[in-house]
Amino acid sequence: MQKIYFCWILLFIVAMSSCKKKTFTPELNISDRNYFPLWVGKYIIYDVDSIVYSSFFSRTDSFHYQIQELIDTAFTDGSANTVYRIVRSKRNDETSAWNVTDIWSASLTANSAEKVEENLRFIKLVFPIFLNESWKGNSKILIDSSTDYLSDWNYEYTSVNVTSAINSFTFDSTVTVLQHDDENAIQKIFYEEKYAKGVGLIYKEAAHIETQPGSYPDGTVYRMSIKEFN
User: Fold this and answer.
1) N or C terminus of the chain with fewer C-beta within 10 Å?
2) How far apart are CA 117 and CA 139, in angstroms?
3) Is the model more confident about 2 or about 162?
4) pLDDT attached to residue 2
5) Taking 90 as the threshold, does the pLDDT of residue 41 lie above it?
6) What does the DSSP 8-state code read for residue 97?
7) Burial bucket for residue 217 (CB in 10 Å: 0-12, 13-18, 19+)
C-alpha cells in the first residue's frame, strides 16, 4: 500500500512539473556576430546627406559629403576584450583628400556589439538576434544636460535576416535596429540603423528637430548610406 501511495505522489510531482510554464531562451547563433565584423584594415565609405534647419536664419541648408571608418589597430582593454580603434575621416567628394575628424572604437562582448562615438558608449546590437527583441542601447552613457535626449531609449530589432538594397548593393541578410522614434507637437527624434551580415553598418538615419507651432524648425536630418567597403 505504501508503495502504491508513493507511486501516486511521484506521478503527481512529475505531472505538475510538466505543467510549469516553460521559458524560451534563444540560443546564441555565432553567425549573429557577423553583423558586426571587426578586423584591422577593415573600412567602409559612406555617402552622407544632411539637412539643417535654422530658426534663427529661417532657412534650410543641405549638405553632401563622404565619411570613411577605417580600423587601423586593435588592443585589449581591462576586461580582456579586444577593442578596435576606428579612424573616422571626412571629405567633400571622391576627388578630395580625407581629413581625420574623430577616433572612435568598437568591440564585441559575449552578448553584445558596442561602439564608442564621441566618448559615448552605445550598445548597438545584442545577441542572439531575433525579431522584436529590445534593450537599453544607451544604458552605458552618463546622462547629463548635453545627453538628456538619449535617456531611456529602447532599441528594438524591427526586421531580421531580410534582403536590403542600399545604393548599388543588394545585401542578402540584414537587420534593422529602431533606436528611437518619438514625435509630438514640439519635437521629432528618430534614430534607426541597418546592418548587413559580413559587412556591418550599411545605413543610418538620425533626425532631431525641435518645432514650435508657427515657428521655423531647428535641427538636423542625417542619412548615411554605404558607398564602398572591403
Assistant:
1) N
2) 14
3) 162
4) 52
5) yes
6) P
7) middle
What is the Cα gyration radius of the chain?
A: 23
Cell numbers found for residue 160: 531580421
- Give the global pTM: 0.85
The single-letter code of the amino acid at 107 is S
DSSP string, 159-218: EEEEEEEETTEEEEEEEEEEEEEEE-SSEEEEEEEEEETTTEEEEEEEEEEE--TTS--E
Q: Which helix (H) or strand (E) holds 6?
A: helix 2-19
- CB contact at 8 A, 128 and 120: no
Enter the DSSP assignment of 5.
H
* Residue 204 grid coordinates: 543610418
CB neighbours of residue 207 within 10 Å: 19
- In tens, the pLDDT along 169-198 reads 999 999 999 999 999 888 999 999 999 999
Instruction: Give the structural domain span for 134.
Output: 2-229
Domain count, the chain: 1
Cα separation of 67 and 65, whole Å? Answer: 7
d(CA 135, CA 30): 19
- The C-alpha cell at 135 is 534593450
